[in-house]
Every structure is written in structure tokens, then in C-alpha cells.
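Project outcomes to date are best conveyed with an example. Our students and postdoctoral researchers have been running inverse folding experiments weekly, and each run begins with a structure described purely in C-alpha cells. The record below, which covers 319 residues, was selected by the lab manager from last quarter's runs and is presented without edits.
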């Protein structure tokens, strides 16, 4: 079985439509179950995104990292942070706790706003890669694939969304993020922002999620083409997977060395997610080496588990 390095795993319990919680499980039981599902799918390293960035979406950084202890061979702790409120000393504190990467999403300013630079500077200093959400945030109903008028589950989710808008949950309760007005916009989370960040922090490893987000693929291709340490994960579901394959973004518009794998789905969906990519890579006629790059090697180099190897003699590693 192929080794898989999953760079995009959400802390379990708050993932799913409207921040749905798994019933009758403690946080530790959820993490244990997630670890089992990942291992069954062939995942040997997984970046677990933790830290209650949004109200009702999980435990604190301190609480979350404790639940990873029984699975230190598998999980790489990644702290979900807001560069608009967190500071360089906060990033140092998370690193001291054991976090080895950062996740950023839903900021009130563009990702490359200079007020965020202290966070990026500290992350570069500590060699903490940053995963950035790219594009539109997912919601309760995917209207590209279904609609409440013809899908009972979509109709139920839509009604839940309307109920929460009419009767907003208390701040901090499950689903509160999806039940109130929120200052979030896809225009602030574009791949071109990574170009600015990479120019100012040239040793910082940057990962754009979801191939840059639907509508942003060409931006992703442009940035990945010329910036040394900007990469993109292939998470985001079947629509983005289809676009990546049919439009030539895997190995043609974006080189295989710049692509990494992420699940970004519920634990019970990971195995199916892996199988879809196995089929897709076969249809694209990727060589075993190219597949291994996307499945494992690129992410392992980003996080320091493998040393880069360059063509020819005399090339320094990692610079």
C-alpha cells in the first residue's frame, strides 16, 4: 500500500454541515477513531488542524494537543490561528506546546496584509509551514451538486440554516459560526496573496488548500510556477478533483513537485477519498515516482521528514 501524508485533517467533532457534532463520543474517542480511519486508508502522517478558530468548532489548542499524545507517530499538530488577533509570541507559544504548523482561514483582511507579517515572520523563524484556506468557504448545501427542491437531505440542511439565521445560536455554541453574520470573503483568500507572502518570507513553506479554490486555479498555477516554496493541496471534493484532472492541473499546469494530498473530509469518507485519487492518478498515467511525490514525498519534505534531493552534484538541500 502506498504511503500517504495527509496535510489537511480537521479536528473531529465539529466537521460537517453546520458544525454537526458526533454523538456520544468524548474528544479523545473521536481522535482515536480518526486515527484508526486514517491508518486504514494508508495514511502514515496527518496534519491535525486544531484550536477552535471558529466558535463551536473544537477544543482549545491546549486541550486538542493532549488528545494527540497516544498517536504521536501519526499526527502532526497544526494550530489554527488568526493573524489578525494572534501575534508572534502566540506562535512561539503554540510551537512550545508542540505545534509544528499553522492553518489560516477566514481573515478580516487579505492574507498578505502587512499587519499579518509578525505571524509569518515567526512561522518562518520556527520552520512552521502554513496551510491557507483558498477561495469560497464551503457551506451547508453544495448547489453545484444538489438542491433543496430535489434532495431531502439538502432541504433539511437548508431549513437548519434558515432556523439558525432567524434564531442565532449563542456565541461559542456548536454551529454558531454558521448561524450569524460573518465577516468572511473569498477575495481575501486568493492564491496571488501567497505570491506576496513568499516574496517577503522566502524560506516560509506555504500551502494553498483546494488547488487555490474553484475559479482560482490559474492563479495557483502562476504562483506555483515561480515561487520556490508555494504548494497546493488537492483537497476539496469531487468537483475540484474533476477540474484538476480534466483541465490539466496535475503534472501539466502545476508540476507534481508542487502538489500534495489532503483529505479535508469526515473520518468515514477518507478511505473513499483515497480510492478516488488512486483511480484518477491511474487515468492520468502518472508514474509511481510522480504518484509518490503527491501522496507522500512533497509533504514529507515540507515538514522536514525527508530531505530534498536535487539533480546533479553540489546542490544544497532545502534552500
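After processing, the design step wrote out the following sequence:
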Amino acid at each position: 500500500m502506498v504511503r500517504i501524508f495527509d496535510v489537511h485533517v480537521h479536528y473531529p467533532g465539529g466537521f460537517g454541515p453546520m458544525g454537526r457534532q458526533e454523538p456520544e463520543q468524548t474528544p479523545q474517542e473521536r481522535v482515536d477513531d480518526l486515527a484508526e480511519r486514517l491508518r486504514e486508508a494508508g495514511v502514515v502522517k496527518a496534519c491535525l488542524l486544531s484550536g477552535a478558530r471558529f466558535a463551536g468548532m473544537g477544543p482549545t489548542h491546549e486541550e486538542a494537543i493532549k488528545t494527540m499524545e497516544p498517536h504521536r507517530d501519526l499526527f502532526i499538530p497544526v494550530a489554527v490561528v488568526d493573524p489578525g488577533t494572534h501575534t508572534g509570541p502566540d506562535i512561539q507559544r503554540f510551537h512550545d506546546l508542540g505545534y509544528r504548523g499553522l492553518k489560516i482561514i477566514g481573515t478580516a483582511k487579505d492574507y498578505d496584509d502587512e499587519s499579518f507579517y509578525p505571524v509569518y515572520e515567526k512561522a518562518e523563524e520556527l520552520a512552521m509551514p502554513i496551510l491557507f484556506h483558498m477561495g469560497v468557504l464551503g457551506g451547508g448545501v453544495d448547489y453545484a451538486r444538489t438542491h433543496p427542491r430535489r434532495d431531502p437531505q439538502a432541504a433539511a440542511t437548508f431549513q437548519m440554516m434558515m432556523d439558525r439565521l432567524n434564531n442565532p445560536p449563542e456565541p461559542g455554541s456548536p454551529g454558531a459560526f454558521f448561524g450569524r453574520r460573518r465577516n468572511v470573503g473569498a477575495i481575501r483568500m486568493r492564491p496571488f496573496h501567497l505570491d506576496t507572502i513568499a516574496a517577503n518570507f522566502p524560506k516560509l513553506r506555504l500551502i494553498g488548500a483546494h488547488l487555490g479554490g474553484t475559479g482560482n486555479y490559474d492563479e495557483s498555477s502562476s504562483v506555483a510556477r515561480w515561487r520556490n516554496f508555494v504548494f497546493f493541496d488537492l483537497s476539496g471534493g469531487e468537483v475540484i478533483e474533476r477540474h484538476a484532472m480534466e483541465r490539466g492541473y496535475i503534472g501539466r499546469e502545476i508540476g507534481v513537485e508542487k502538489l500534495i494530498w489532503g483529505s479535508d473530509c469526515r473520518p468515514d469518507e477518507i478511505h473513499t477519498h483515497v480510492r478516488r485519487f488512486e483511480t484518477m492518478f491511474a487515468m492520468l498515467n502518472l508514474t509511481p515516482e510522480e504518484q509518490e511525490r503527491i501522496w507522500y514525498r512533497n509533504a514529507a519534505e515540507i515538514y522536514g521528514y525527508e530531505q530534498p534531493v536535487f539533480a546533479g552534484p553540489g546542490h544544497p538541500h532545502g534552500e
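Residues 152-166 form the longest helix (15 residues). Residues 15-21 have pLDDT under 50 and may be disordered. The training component of this project remains on track.
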